[in-house]
Amino acid sequence: MDRSQIETPALLLDYELLEANVRYMAKYLDKKSVKLRPHIKCHKTPEIARIQIDAGADGVMVAKLGEASVMADAGIGDIAIANQVVQETKIRRLVDINQCARVSVAVDNPAIVDRISAVATERDVDISLIVEVNVGMNRCGVMPGKPALKLAEKVNASRGVIFAGLMGYEGGIAAYAKSFEERERRCHECYKRLVDTKEMIREAGLEVETVSTGATTSFSIAAEYPGITQIEAGTYALMDLHHKLDGVPFNYALTVLTTVISRPSADRAIIDGGVKTFSETEGFPKAKDMTGIEVYKLTEEHGYLRMTDPSLDINVGDTIEFIPAYVATTVNLHDKFYVMKGDRVERVWKIAARGRVD
Question: Based on the domain organization, do 65 and 189 belong to the same domain?
Fold first, then answer.
């Protein structure tokens, strides 16, 4: 199948650039003491997860239990949920999945430790729990220091659960730093809280197997910080505009192919992709390898292009590729990737965990 035969709008995945991104991360971490557990919320696709694992990743990380189910069903055997699972029915699902795969989960509340412990003990399954520490994001997470120690001790003393370490996500802080130096400074503040907490727990007599942090925008900063053992970067495999900062070397492997459906005037054109095609998280998409065009508005099924160069020869029926501003929420709008080598479609991958926000 040729690129010209693809019905739009559609996600195009450049296989060679995807592989290059995965190889770069694997090579960078190869001689370091940290391991990679890539976050698959960005691509939601078992085929890509397998490429990452084959390159040396220690399993995968997911955002939701539904994503964990998809990965386990696809044969991925080591999965971490970087989120809280609190509903009774979901806890039972978590325990069920652990009978065919190792699925660890974040906790920040002693009552949830009790609930998971009760169900796991009833089913005779051990669930690995990762204490989530609030390192500065002010989202989920127990406070660093003694509160985290107290929760770790509770996990360690509970039946049916295993204290598997700490996690503390700083990506939302790192992504908005204006320079690499500011990003590094902010990240170091977060990592110090996390590693100091690890030392406090270790001094109390508990082993801390995992200290997990790090995003696409901070992978190299986290990898060099003493005491960090695991990096959670995810966007790096596909990349987007939001994460393309100074010191982030990954290629744009994902684009969205659209068709021009109207050219009402010299300074305006309309494409067949709106907010049901592109996520508006972190801004509008950008045309790939083209100047003189900018997206200025998205409605349900239409994208509005401002022709800053009205002389551009853009006609109805022409196709334009766009780099999404935020890959994770854009991918979640689509059913499949067209995996490309040059202008040829080599294969089609179903985005199996698309919509699994449960």
Answer: yes
Kindly state whether residues 291 and 191 are assigned to the same domain: no
Q: Are 261 and 272 in contact (CB under 8 A)?
A: yes
Instruction: Identify whether residues 266 and 290 lie together within a single domain.
Output: yes
What is the Cα–Cα distance from 237 to 36, expressed in whole angstroms?
12
Half-sphere exposure (Cβ direction) of 250: Cα atoms closer than 13 Å: 34
53 and 163 together in one domain:
yes
Residue 235 DSSP symbol: G
Number of domains in the chain: 2
Other C-beta atoms closer than 10 Å to the C-beta of 226 total 7
Q: Are residues 52 and 178 in the same domain?
A: yes
Cβ pair 226, 285 in contact under 8 A: no
| Domain around 151 | 15-237
Beta-carbon contacts of 41 under 8 Å, excluding residues fewer than 6 positions away, are: 61, 62, 63, 64, 67, 234, 328
How many Cα neighbours within 13 Å face the side chain of 27? 8
pLDDT (tens place) for every residue of the chain, 358 residues total: 999 999 999 999 999 999 999 999 999 999 899 999 999 999 999 999 999 999 999 999 999 999 999 999 999 999 999 999 999 999 999 999 998 899 999 999 999 999 999 999 999 999 999 999 999 999 999 999 999 999 999 999 999 999 999 999 998 888 888 899 999 999 999 999 999 999 999 999 999 999 999 999 999 999 999 999 999 999 999 999 999 999 999 999 999 999 999 999 999 999 999 999 999 999 999 999 999 999 999 999 999 999 999 889 999 999 999 999 999 999 999 999 999 999 999 999 999 999 999 9
User: In terms of domains, do 331 and 204 share one?
Assistant: no
**Rounded to the nearest 5 degrees, what angle is found at the Cα of 230, between the Cα atoms of 98 and 50?**
60
Q: What is the DSSP string of 86-116?
A: -SHHHHHHHHHHTTTSEEEEEE--HHHHHHH
DSSP 283: S
How would you class 61 by CB atoms within 10 Å of its CB: exposed for 0-12, middle for 13-18, buried for 19 or more? buried
